[in-house]
Write a structure and sequence with these properties.
The complex is a heterotrimer of chains A (516), B (288) and C (316).
Chain A: H1 2-15, E1 51-58, H2 70-79, E2 81-88, H3 93-102, E3 109-112, H4 116-123, H5 138-146, H6 148-152, E4 164-165, E5 175-180, H7 181-186, H8 195-208, H9 223-227, E6 237-240, E7 245-248, H10 253-267, H11 280-288, E8 294-298, H12 301-310, E9 318-321, E10 343-346, H13 352-362, H14 365-373, E11 380-383, E12 386-389, H15 399-406, H16 420-423, H17 428-439, H18 452-478, H19 486-495, H20 498-512
Parallel strand pairs in A: 1-2, 1-3
Antiparallel strand pairs in A: 3-10, 4-10, 5-8, 5-9, 6-7, 11-12
Helix pairs in contact in A: 10-18, 18-20
Chain B: H1 2-35, H2 39-43, H3 57-64, H4 67-97, H5 106-116, H6 123-132, H7 140-143, H8 150-161, H9 165-173, H10 178-186, H11 191-207, H12 210-215, H13 224-233, H14 252-267, H15 269-273, H16 281-287
Helix pairs in contact in B: 1-14, 3-14, 4-8, 4-11, 9-10, 13-14
Chain C: H1 2-25, H2 27-45, E1 56-57, E2 68-69, H3 73-80, H4 84-102, H5 104-114, H6 119-129, H7 137-148, H8 154-161, H9 176-200, H10 205-213, H11 218-242, H12 250-256, H13 262-265, H14 268-276, H15 282-310
Antiparallel strand pairs in C: 1-2
Helix pairs in contact in C: 3-15, 4-9, 5-9, 6-9, 7-12, 9-11, 11-15, 14-15
The chains are: A alpha+beta (516), B mainly alpha (288), C mainly alpha (316).
Chain lengths: 516, 288, 316
């Protein structure tokens, strides 16, 4: 049975293109349908008797947790749950987590940035395996069945699912090529489609603005995390959905071509000479002082940079650029970036049944709607059949003020979010970028959960491979090592144990996905 | 001739000290200027020495969090109480440890203390001890677990080792025991080291983050660092949080304002302590 | 035979008497040291059983005692890491160079500052130079990268104004150690000198008076009076510092690390952080830490032994 499930699961994954938020249908019509309890009597809350549920979550410094937040009152009225939050600073969160874990005093719900802790400690008995409770989770089951490619990355090394994926805000992690549309139009430059056109565009910009570095990016080699996909490769190990095996990108020919290309950009000063040491601050300085016209980063920069730069020059227009396909095996795609890593786990304790029921409510139509939008007349109003956030006393409303005022969409206050609530506040440019970025992203590379022995292979062989790649890739671009030595480099990787490492990943992934 | 050489050394000395002052004060001036400048100027890297587009936004943000005021008060309480406790324990211990020939079990105690500099059970066993002592969410949980410290003990001991024995002997002739000698004779003539060690302890308590974070439950007892630290670390990989597009990546101005707010009070302590760095105190005592 | 036995027992009694006398003599000293020792026992020795997880597969939820023993497995894993020796070498060299350059810096600074006669100027310099200690490592590192940047950095602007070629300091492993160490001196020299300035106040002024009568110049006074007088402090600090030879400040190395300088910048502490903890390998991290401590404490014992043989100051 489990095997069958896994087979179908894999099938669905291969066929389905991963898309971020499955658009909720309830964008315009509020679904405040009252829940029905077992006796058929209509009740207005999820629980008849008052219930207390505790939760551990880090707060964000821009919207620190407030005990009188509207969202807590909202939860109380809708579900009869008193939601008690232990909100702590994000720095040192895991130390707090670990002390509570060792003393077996974790609260009912534990929020986390990734599923790694939940998987490790869940297997030891700290958290409920949701696969064993699916009958009690009708709403979550619906999500689970529609999004198995996303859920698989949350599974533990033993194939258990120890956490609820927190989804819907992944769009804010979308990344893509951003370009200065105003500059392109001014000089009648067309959006490039392949590596040659891309190179010519950079050349042309360099001639027009000799002091500039037309392309700028930050975090040095991490740039390839997104960019390598367009070259038909990857900057780390990746799962080949067709061949159904794990491969390592940085030894592939496509990857070599990419490094050769960036070497050329470096030598012709089309990227800054210190591209490999630029800090975020320096990078943003270069772009905002009109010394670069292309970058690859979070799409939110369209607004954050755009707004700042328009204060001095109203013509500035930063837009999302559809990714050019680079090289022989190129594709007009970028790495999946709608990352939704955060999870909420449920402790095994006497409150388990209530907590599961409550978590399932967060996945219900009502839960999704009220925890994303709040309530009509309180947080939003409807005009022309469109929901609109009600501005505060200062006339301002944005995703930050919504969080500060109501506590909506803060850590631990939702499990499945309707992104319409946020994107409705964005500029037209950002809405466009959001749409395009989703369209041009590749299938998600799954996360493999390792057991103890595999983890030690990762910490030795894996670490050596990652290190060697990082050191050598820089040298290839800087010209300190000739690209003629590429085959030698590939051989060095094999000597370090690349094949055993990939074998280990294949075995681990098979076990995680049920052995098929 | 000789006069000329002296002035040459003086010039060199002054030049060196001026150079030191410039390179150490610049980061602070830079931080203050950035924290007082407008967002766009900072983003464009236009701030070098003086604020540009003067703005108090960053400070407004830091003080927007009302918990800051309570946290200030808490930090000061912890620093004062902690420094006092630490000084008491460290001074007594260091003085005893400096009596190489008289202290029973001298070598044993020293090695016992040295080992703690290298081997520790880690955070969780320590937490369990603090928990078992019933200290969780109590002020003492921040003070006791970090009250002594092997390093401070050895450093202070090295001062007592250098203390002229004649003074101590004069004390024992007068019938004072070790405690009496320490408090009536040694300490009044060791103000410089007392000031130094107090500073070290005070700064330690001021910056302490882990203890309050782990051992305090109630927000009303949090010190400043628990609230401000993540703002400074945000955006670096040392922070666990992803600096996604969703979370506002803090501008340098905000980070710097946070640092200024959290260090200015403790930085001001040192100039007041410097008056205890007086030469010749001890000599007066010998001659007297 | 009996005679021998008697003399042995006599000696034993005498020794016992001596010990008893010493114990009685140090009654007050023992009372004084008792609170500190109690502190170390409660807050350091009681939790020390935590070290055992280096030999176990530690699972936090199961706890320290229920996790299974695995012997030296984690230590063996470390040596399966192909770059282990490079990493050990990096750690040692970085720390060693920091010691050579960084250790004397605050002493020299304190000695020079001590010669300043103007009390107000002296206090001003003291206060200003200790400021960088309060700037968090994150900010120190970002400032260093900013100053050294080839495009916007102050240093390169200066180099260019001299008509020389710009240098991408951070973009090459060549300069990395120098940058780490010199920025360490910059941010730590003022703070480090406080202790020595305090030590210098304890010097008996009559020593200077006689030195001046002997016609000594400033240099000679420093060499023959100042340095010997603060020697116990210097030596204590040096011994303690030697016990950290296999440790480097993790935070700063990590923040200054990049793909280009990995060959010199990967140290034990950053390896544990980026790989040991990656898959929640608590036991592995502890095992490496333990090994590290053993090496460190051996250095300290050696330093203490040498110091005790050549002069009077030692930790025990």
């Amino acid at each position: 049975m489990k095997r069958l499930l896994a087979v179908t699961l894999m099938l669905i994954m291969v066929l389905s293109l991963a898309s971020c938020a499955v658009k909720e249908s309830s964008a315009t019509t509020p679904t405040n349908a009252p829940g029905t309890n077992e006796t058929g009597k209509v009740s207005s809350t999820l629980f008849d008797e008052p219930v207390t549920i505790t939760v551990l979550a880090p707060y964000h410094d821009t919207w620190p947790f407030q005990e009188d937040w509207y969202v807590l009152d909202l939860i109380k009225r809708k579900t009869n749950v008193t939601y008690v939050m232990d909100a702590v600073a994000s720095t040192g969160y895991y130390d707090r987590y670990n002390t509570l874990l060792t003393t077996h005093s974790l609260p009912d719900i534990v929020w986390d940035w990734t599923s790694a802790y939940a998987n490790t400690h869940g297997a030891d008995g700290a958290f409920a395996n949701l696969l064993e409770h699916m009958d009690k989770l009708p709403n979550f089951k619906k999500y689970y069945e529609q999004n198995q490619s996303a859920v698989i990355s949350k599974m533990g090394a033993d194939g258990g699912l120890y956490s609820f994926p927190v989804v819907g805000l992944g769009n804010t992690n979308l990344r893509g090529w951003l370009y200065r549309k105003d500059i392109f139009e001014k000089h009648n430059i067309q959006i490039p489609k392949d590596e040659n056109e891309f190179y010519n565009v950079l050349k042309q910009l360099k001639e027009l603005y000799p002091e500039s570095y037309p392309l700028v990016f930050r975090e040095n080699l991490n740039h390839f995390k997104m960019a390598a996909t367009a070259w038909g490769t990857c900057n780390t190990e990746y799962y080949d959905w067709n061949a159904k095996v794990w491969k390592f990108g940085p030894i592939e020919d496509n990857f070599r071509d990419m490094l050769a290309y960036y070497k050329k950009l470096y030598q012709e000063e089309l990227i800054p000479p210190d591209w490999n040491t630029l800090t975020t601050q320096q990078w943003s300085q270069i772009f905002t002082t009109h010394n670069a016209f292309l970058t690859l980063d979070y799409i939110a920069r369209v607004d954050t940079w755009g707004d700042e730069m328009r204060q001095a020059d109203p013509t500035v227009d930063i837009r999302y650029m559809p990714p050019p396909a680079f090289g022989k095996n190129g594709q007009s795609k970028l790495r999946f970036s709608c990352e939704e890593n955060t999870v909420m786990s449920v402790s095994i304790n006497s409150n388990l049944a209530n907590t599961l029921k409550f978590m399932d409510w967060m996945y219900s139509d009502e839960g999704i709607d009220v925890l994303s939008w709040g309530e009509e007349g309180v947080t939003y109003e409807i005009a022309n059949n469109q929901r609109k956030w009600i501005p505060g006393d200062d006339g301002k409303v944005n995703v930050t003020t919504i969080r500060q005022r109501y506590g909506l969409s803060t850590n631990g206050m939702f499990a499945r979010f309707n992104y319409d609530a946020h994107i409705s506040l964005a500029s037209e440019q950002l809405k466009e970028a959001d749409r395009l970025a989703q369209q041009y992203q590749d299938i998600q590379i799954p996360t493999v959960s390792l057991n103890q022995d595999e983890a030690s292979i990762d910490a030795t062989t894996g670490a050596a491979i990652r290190n060697h790649y990082r050191g050598e890739a820089s040298k290839f671009i800087l010209g300190e090592r000739p690209l003629e030595e590429w085959d030698m480099y590939v051989q060095e990787m094999k000597t370090l144990g690349l094949d055993e490492y990939l074998d280990m990943l294949n075995v681990a992934f098979k076990r995680q996905t049920g052995g098929s | 001739m000789s006069k000329k050489r002296v002035s040459f050394w003086t010039v060199l000395k002054v030049a060196f000290l001026v150079f030191m002052v410039i390179i150490t004060i610049y980061p602070f001036i830079y931080m203050i200027s950035v924290s007082l400048s407008g967002k766009l100027s900072v983003m464009r890297g236009e701030v070098y020495l003086f604020p540009k587009d003067f703005s108090l936004e960053a400070y407004k943000f830091v003080f927007r969090d009302k918990r800051i005021y309570t946290a200030y008060k808490n930090t000061i309480i912890y620093v004062v109480l902690g420094t006092f406790t630490s000084m008491l324990l460290t001074t007594l211990g260091a003085y005893a440890l400096s009596k190489k020939n008289r202290l029973f079990g001298y070598k044993f105690f020293n090695i016992l203390i040295v080992i703690t500099m290298f081997f520790g059970g880690g955070m969780i066993p320590k937490f369990l001890v603090v928990n078992a002592l019933g200290l969780i969410d109590k002020i003492w949980a921040i003070i006791l677990p970090s009250s002594v410290g092997a390093w401070n003990l050895f450093v202070m001991r090295s001062f007592f080792l250098n203390y002229p024995e004649e003074i101590e002997q004069s004390g024992s002739i007068d019938g004072l025991n070790d405690l009496g000698i320490l408090f009536y004779l040694v300490l009044p003539t060791s103000t410089a080291i007392l000031a130094t060690m107090s500073l070290f302890h005070a700064v330690g308590y001021w910056n302490s983050f882990m203890e309050p974070y782990l051992y305090l439950r109630s927000e009303s007892k949090w010190p400043l660092q628990v609230i401000l630290r993540s703002i400074v670390l945000q955006g670096t990989s040392l922070d666990t949080e992803y600096a996604g597009g969703q979370s506002e990546v803090y501008e340098d101005s905000l980070k710097f304002a946070t640092i200024i707010v959290s260090v200015v009070p403790i930085v001001c302590v040192y100039p007041f302590l410097q008056k205890y760095f007086v030469k010749g105190v001890m000599i007066g005592s010998i001659k007297g | 035979m009996a005679k021998l036995a008697t003399s042995v027992s006599m000696a034993a009694v005498k020794k016992n008497n001596n010990r008893w006398k010493k114990l009685k003599d140090s009654k007050y000293l023992l009372i004084m040291i008792a609170p500190a020792i109690l502190y170390f026992i409660i807050f350091h020795y009681l939790p020390m059983y935590g070290v055992t997880i280096a030999f176990k597969d530690y699972k936090p939820f199961k706890g320290y005692f229920a996790s299974s023993w695995v012997g030296l497995k984690h230590f063996r894993t470390l040596f399966k890491y192909p770059y282990v020796w490079r990493m050990v070498r990096n750690t040692f060299l970085l720390s060693f160079y920091s010691l050579i350059w960084g250790f004397p810096a605050p002493i020299i600074f304190a000695l020079i500052l001590n010669e300043v006669k103007n009390e107000r100027g002296k206090r001003f310099v003291q206060t200003v130079t200790y400021l960088p200690h309060f700037i968090s490592t994150v900010v120190i590192v970002s400032m260093v990268t900013m100053f050294l940047s080839p495009s916007t950095g102050i240093l390169n602007t200066f180099i260019k104004s001299l008509g020389l070629n710009k240098v991408n300091f951070m973009g090459s492993p060549k300069y990395w150690r120098t940058i780490y160490i010199s920025s360490g001196i910059w941010s730590g020299v003022g703070w480090g000198s406080i202790l020595y300035l305090a030590a210098l106040t304890n010097i008996d002024p009559t020593l200077y008076e006689s030195a001046i009568m002997d016609g000594a110049n400033t240099f000679q006074k420093i060499i023959h009076i100042n340095i010997p007088c603060i020697a116990p402090t210097i030596i204590t600090m040096l011994i303690l510092r030697t016990g950290q030879l296999m440790s480097v400040g993790f935070e700063k190395v990590y923040l200054l690390q990049g793909a280009v300088n990995l060959e010199v910048s990967e140290v034990i502490q950053t390896y544990v952080y980026t790989n040991g903890l990656r898959n929640l390998q608590y036991s592995y991290g502890t095992a490496i830490g333990l090994l590290n401590s053993i090496v460190n404490i051996s250095f300290l014992f050696a330093a203490n032994y040498i110091s005790r043989s050549v002069n009077e100051t030692s930790l025990w």
